[in-house]
Design brief:
The protein has three domains: 18-134, Orthogonal Bundle (Butyryl-Coa Dehydrogenase, subunit A, domain 1); 138-238, Butyryl-CoA Dehydrogenase, subunit A, domain 2 (Beta Barrel); 245-399, Butyryl-CoA Dehydrogenase, subunit A, domain 3, CATH 1.20.140. The termini are far apart. A hairpin with a 4-residue loop joins strand 11 and strand 12 (289-290). The strands form four sheets. It has a four-stranded mixed beta sheet with strand order 3-6-7-10, with helices on one face. A four-stranded antiparallel beta sheet has the order 4-5-9-8, with no helix packed on it. The chain has a two-stranded antiparallel sheet with strand order 1-2. The radius of gyration is 22 Å and the shape is globular. It is 50% helix and 12% strand. It has helices at 26-49, 55-66, 81-95, 97-116, 119-130, 245-281, 295-327, 336-361, 363-366, 370-378, 388-399; strands at 8-9, 12-13, 135-138, 157-158, 161-168, 179-185, 195-201, 207-209, 225-233, 237-238, 283-284, 289-290. The structure holds flavin-adenine dinucleotide. Residues 105, 137-140, 145-146, 148, 169-172, 217, 220, 222, 380, 383-385, 387, 389-390, 393 line the site of flavin-adenine dinucleotide.
Length: 406
C-alpha cells in the first residue's frame, strides 16, 4: 500500500527538498548552484594549485547580488538574513571552498560594519561592497593565537585619529581585500573592555601582507599581516573607543560560527556526492559489479550522509532562530551556545566524512583531484578560531556551570 505524500519513482526513494534546504529558500539555493556551476567550479582547481586568490569568482558572487546578503534590502543589501547566508555559504563551498570561506569572512566584515558603523560609514562602504569590493576581518594575533578576543596590539590616540601597530597571524583575503576591520585595543578607553575596531583601507601606508602557503583553502590568501604606524582617522573607528567585545559576541562570532559551519557542511556534501558518482561509475570487469553495488560501500555512504544531515539540521535550526532574534530585536549572543555546538560538530564531521568519501573512492580518491581537495580544505575547520578545543571547553563549562572565561 502506497503511503500518501511519499514520493517513490521507479522504486527509488526521493529525498524531500525540505530536508536539504529550508522552506522558502529554494530559489536562492537554485541560484547559488547555477552560480557555482558557471562561475566557481572551473576556477577552483587553478586557485588551489596556484594558491591564487579567487577574485573573479568573488566578483561574480557580488555581480549576482550576493555582496551584502545579510544587509536589509532597503539599505541596498539582499535582505536574506542568516538563513540565506547559510544556504549560500553551504552551496558555494561545494564548488569552491576558498571562494566560500573568503565570502563568509567578507559577509561577517560587512555585517560588522553595518551593525557597529554610523550612517556615514555605511554610505561610504556598502555601495562599493555591492559592486564587488571585499571586506576582511583582521583579529587573530601571533602573540595570543586562538584567543583572538585578547589582542596585544594597540592604537593610542593621535591627533584626530589613532596610530595603529598590529601584527596579525591569519587574515583571510589578506592583501586582496579593499578594507579590513582590524581588532585592536585602545589604551585611552575609559571602559574596562579596551577592544576597539578600526577600518583600515587597502591603500594606506604601513600595511604589509605575507603569502599564505597551506594544506587547503589555498586560494584564501589567509596569510599574516602587519600594520605598522598606520594612521586611522577617527571617522574610520567602528563603534566606541573600547567596549567592542559586545560586537564580538553579537556579530563577528555568530556570523563566523554559522557561516563557517555552513562551509564545512557544503564541503562534506561535495565529497559524498563525488564519492557516490564515482562508486556508481566504477565497474569491476571481473565481477561486472559497480563499487556502489557493494553493501559495505553503501553503508559507508549512508553513515556519512546521516552525519552531514545532522549537522545541516543544526545549521538551519540555528539560522532560523537567529533570524527570529533579529526580527524581534533580540541579541544574537543568545544563540552562541548552539553555535558553539554547531561549529564544533560541523568541523569534526567534515574531517570524518571527507575521509569516508576518500575510502569509498579508493586509490582514485587519493589522487590529486576533487576528493583529496575536499579533505584538505575541510581540515581547516577545527583549527579556525574559536578552535574545536576551545569550543568544547566552553560547552563543557556551560554544562557544569563554570563561567565561560575566568
Ligand atoms: C585557513 C585559516 C583562515 C583564517 N582566517 C582568519 C581571519 O580571516 N581572521 C582572523 O582573525 N583569524 C583567522 N584565522 C585564525 C584562526 O581564527 C585561529 O586564530 C588560528 O587558526 C589559531 O591558530 P594558532 O596557530 O594561533 O593556534 P594556537 O593558539 O597556537 O593553538 C594551538 C593548539 O592549542 C589549542 N588551544 C589554544 N588555546 C587553548 C585553550 N585556551 N584551551 C584549550 N586548547 C587551546 C588550539 O585549539 C590548538 O589545538 C584563520 C586560520 C586559518 C587556519
Amino acid at each position: 500500500m502506497a503511503i500518501e505524500n511519499t514520493v517513490v519513482t521507479d522504486g527509488v526513494m526521493e529525498i524531500p527538498s525540505w530536508w536539504k534546504c529550508p522552506s522558502g529558500y529554494e530559489e536562492l539555493l537554485a541560484a547559488a548552484h547555477a552560480l557555482g556551476k558557471k562561475e566557481l567550479l572551473h576556477r577552483a582547481a587553478i586557485s588551489d594549485q596556484e594558491s591564487q586568490y579567487p577574485i573573479e569568482s568573488l566578483t561574480a558572487i557580488a555581480n549576482a547580488g550576493f555582496g551584502a546578503v545579510t544587509i536589509p534590502a532597503e539599505e541596498g543589501g539582499l535582505g536574506k538574513g542568516l538563513t540565506g547566508f547559510a544556504v549560500l555559504a553551504e552551496t558555494f563551498a561545494k564548488y569552491c571552498a576558498s571562494s566560500a570561506m573568503c565570502w563568509v569572512m567578507h559577509t561577517a566584515a560587512v555585517q560588522t560594519l553595518y551593525s557597529a558603523g554610523t550612517n556615514e560609514q555605511r554610505q561610504r562602504f556598502i555601495p562599493g561592497v555591492l559592486k564587488g569590493e571585499i571586506g576582511a576581518l583582521a583579529f587573530s594575533e601571533p602573540a595570543t593565537g586562538s584567543h583572538f578576543w585578547n589582542v596585544v596590539s594597540s592604537a593610542p590616540r593621535q591627533g584626530n585619529g589613532y596610530l595603529l601597530n598590529a601584527d596579525k597571524s591569519f587574515v583571510t583575503s589578506g592583501g586582496a581585500a579593499d578594507w579590513y576591520v582590524v581588532c585592536t585595543s585602545s589604551p585611552d578607553a575609559v571602559s574596562e573592555d579596551k577592544l576597539m575596531y578600526l577600518i583600515v583601507e587597502k591603500d594606506q601606508d604601513g600595511i604589509e601582507f605575507f603569502p599564505f602557503s597551506a594544506m587547503g583553502l589555498r586560494g584564501n590568501s589567509s596569510g599574516p599581516m602587519k600594520f605598522k604606524d598606520v594612521y586611522v582617522p577617527v571617522n574610520n573607528r567602528l563603534g566606541t573607543e573600547g567596549g567592542m567585545n559586545y560586537y564580538n559576541d553579537n556579530v563577528v562570532d555568530p556570523l563566523f560560527l554559522l557561516g563557517s559551519a555552513a562551509c564545512w557542511i557544503g564541503i562534506a556534501q561535495g565529497a559524498v556526492d563525488a564519492a557516490v558518482g564515482g562508486a556508481k561509475k566504477k565497474v569491476h570487469q571481473d565481477t561486472g559489479k559497480s563499487v556502489a553495488s557493494y553493501q559495505v560501500i553503501r553503508h559507508e555512504l549512508a553513515k556519512a550522509q546521516i552525519l552531514i544531515d545532522s549537522a545541516r539540521s543544526m545549521l538551519y535550526r540555528a539560522a532560523d532562530e537567529m533570524d527570529r532574534c533579529l526580527e524581534k530585536g533580540q541579541l544574537l549572543s543568545t544563540s552562541l551556545y548552539p553555535l558553539w555546538e554547531l561549529k564544533t560538530y560541523a568541523a569534526d564531521m567534515v574531517i570524518q566524512v571527507t575521509n569516508q568519501a576518500m575510502q569509498v573512492a579508493g586509490g582514485r580518491g587519493y589522487l590529486t583531484g576533487q576528493i583529496e581537495k575536499f579533505l584538505r580544505d575541510g581540515r581547516a575547520g577545527a583549527l579556525m578560531g574559536p578552535t574545536n578545543e576551545i569550543l568544547r571547553e566552553w560547552i563543557g563549562r556551560t554544562l557544569v556551570e563554570v563561567p565561560w572565561f575566568d
